[in-house]
Amino acid sequence: MSKLEGKVAVVTGGSKGIGAAIAKALAADGASVVVNYASSKAGADAVVEAITAGGGRAIAVQADISMTVEAQGLIEAAVAKFGRLDVLVNNSGVYEFAAIEEVTAEHYRRLFDVNVLGALFATQAAAKHLGEGGSIINISSAVTDVLMPTSAVYTGTKAALNGISGVLANELAPRKIRVNTVSPGYVVTEGTQTAGIAGSEMEAGLVAQTPLGRAGHPDDIARVVAFLASDDARWVTGEVINASGGVR
Q1: H or E element that contains 179
Q2: Which molecular function term from Gene Ontology is one that the record holds (predicted)?
Q3: pLDDT class for 1, splitting at 50, 70, 90?
Q4: Cα 187 vs. chain centroid, distance in angstroms?
C-alpha cells in the first residue's frame, strides 16, 4: 500500500518548479492532490495531466491565497471534490531582491502578502478540516541562513514563516496536527532560470557554498515533503528541515 493512499493533499503554488514536483511526489505516494495556481493555468493543467497519466488523482484550482476568501475557496474545493483534507503544503511564494535603498512599501507588501499572509490564510482555512494525523508543511528557504545581500524583505518573509510554523506546531498539537518546515537551498527551477540566476555567476557562487557540490533539483525537496506528509513522520512536528545540500 502506498504511504499516502486515501489521503488528500493541497499544494499551493503547484503549477511549476518545487510545487509541481511536490504535487507529483505526493500523488506517486497515493494521495489525491489539489494543484493550486494563481495565474499559470497551463502549468497546473500540465501537472494534473502528468499525475492522471500515471494513474493518480488530481485537479487544478485557481486561487490567490493572499485573499482570505480565495484561500477558503481553495480548501473547500478540495473537500468538495475528494471528501476530506489531510495534508496542506504552503509552497506559494514570490521572490524579488532589492538593495535597502530600493525597498518600497509595494515590494514589501507583495512578498509578505503571498509568502506569509497567504500561508496563514491557507492554514486557517485548512485547519477547519484537518483531523488527527493531519500534516501542514511550509516551504521556507536556506536564505535565512545564508543572509544574502539585497534579500532583506524576502529573507524576512521566510524567517517569519519559520517562526509561524513553530507557533502553529504548538497551537495545533492538541488536535494531533503536525506542522513542519522544509528549507530548500538553491534549486534550479523555471523561476531561477527566468530570473537569470541559472547559469550565472550567482549560481556558481551558491553551488560553491553547497557542501554536496551541486544545485538542488525540485524532486530533492519533494521527497522530503512526501516524508513529512506521511505517517513515517508521525513523531515529527515543529521542525525546520534543511534540504540544502549542507548549506548552513
Answers
A1: strand 178-184
A2: glucose 1-dehydrogenase [NAD(P)+] activity
A3: low
A4: 13
Average pLDDT over residues 170-188: 97
Read off the C-alpha cell for 205: 557562487
DSSP codes of every residue in 120-188: HHHHHHHHTT--TT-EEEEE--THHHH--TT-HHHHHHHHHHHHHHHHHHHHHGGGT-EEEEEEE--B-
Cα 98 from Cα 153, distance rounded (Å): 8
Report how far residue 123's alpha carbon sits from residue 72's, in angstroms, rounded to the nearest whole number. Answer: 9
Q: Does the 8-185+221-240 domain belong in CATH 3.40.50.1970? A: no
Mean pLDDT, the chain, rounded, equals 96
Q: Which of 37, 95, 108, 154 is catalytic?
A: 154
DSSP 113: I
Contact 243, 182 (CB under 8 A): yes
User: How does pLDDT run across 6-35, given as a tens digit for each residue?
Assistant: 999 999 999 999 999 999 999 999 999 999
- Told to judge if 154 belongs to the known catalytic residues of this protein, a careful annotator would answer yes
- The secondary structure of 8-68 as a DSSP string is EEEETT-SSHHHHHHHHHHHHTT-EEEEEESS-HHHHHHHHHHHHHTT--EEEEE--TTSH
Q: Where does the pLDDT of residue 203 fall: very low under 50, low under 70, confident under 90, or very high at 90 and above?
A: confident
Instruction: Specify the pLDDT at position 199.
Output: 84
pTM of the model: 0.96
